[in-house]
Amino acid sequence: MDRLGRLLYVAAWLGLPLGIGLQLYLYPPKAPGFWWAYGAFALFFLFALSRGPKGAPRFLVHGLGAYLLFELGRAQGHGWALGYWAPALYLLAAFAYPVPWALAASGFWGGLLLLAPLLWGWERPYYAHFALSQPVLLALTLLLARFRELYGRARFWREQALTCPLTGLPNRRALEMALEREVARVERGAKPFSLVLLDLDDFKRVNDEKGHPEGDRLLKEVARYLVAHVRRGDLVGRLGGEEFAILLPETDPLQATRLAERLREGLRALGTTASFGVATYRGDLGELYQRADEALYRAKRAGKDRVARHTEDQGSR
Length: 317
Prior knowledge:
Helix content is 68%, strand content 9%. It has helices spanning 3-26, 32-49, 52-74, 86-96, 99-120, 124-162, 172-187, 203-210, 212-229, 253-270, 285-301; strands spanning 194-200, 235-240, 243-248, 274-280, 307-309. Strands 2-3-1-4-5 form a 5-stranded mixed β-sheet, with helices on both faces. Helix 3 (52-74) runs parallel beside helix 5 (99-120) and helix 5 (99-120) runs antiparallel to helix 6 (124-162). The two termini are 43 Å apart. 29% of the residues are buried. InterPro entries: Diguanylate_Cyclase, GGDEF_dom, Nucleotide_cyclase, Rev_trsase/Diguanyl_cyclase. It comes from Thermus brockianus.
């Protein structure tokens, strides 16, 4: 959860004890037994909040439903004020469950909230507004739960489509999109960027001799190393197999080559080697990848574990 999410989470749950405190201040219980009930609710709410942002709503929705019923029974003459807090019950249900279960949870407690005032003889004007609001809130709950499901599916497929499931790095499609954005920046006046392709040397031997689990472990270790040792703003992606790519914004061929050399030496320290191909954007995105690929295979043919820069970039500074 990001900083804003944590702030909103804390702000949302602070309202719960503050609301209960306000109720106690305005309408303090007269019977000692009620204080025990408040203590039990407080312990339950603390337990629910300890479950974290994902688990808390599933407990809070039922704790809040029971608390609202308890308050309706205790402060019958002033129970209409609790209608202000009823939306929180429905929102919690929408965040806690998918659509069918959100309907069941919010419908159960909402139904009890509708029946209880009838049994306790609420005044008609208060009850009419309260009763009409409940089905509206229920409908909004289902809409919110439905939107959450759709957003979750869209986010899942977006992440699956743009992320390598093994390493967590951006995949080829994500890299292509980033390259297109970088081209647009160059066209607006930014400095040219460079592309580094790297291929782990003799990776097939690792899979054949040590097994695919060891090969997967090595790929993940290399991915972590590359991400940790590039500059802020650079993008590391996995093209497939044992081939990775690094997008270096506003980087000339010499700077890109120096960075690739540092990475090559670092990978050797990890116990593996890689060959690198470096090319700089010169106005044609398709040609950029081709030139970087040619430089990579030149490094392979020259003996592996080395960095090669495309011949068009040899004299660049």
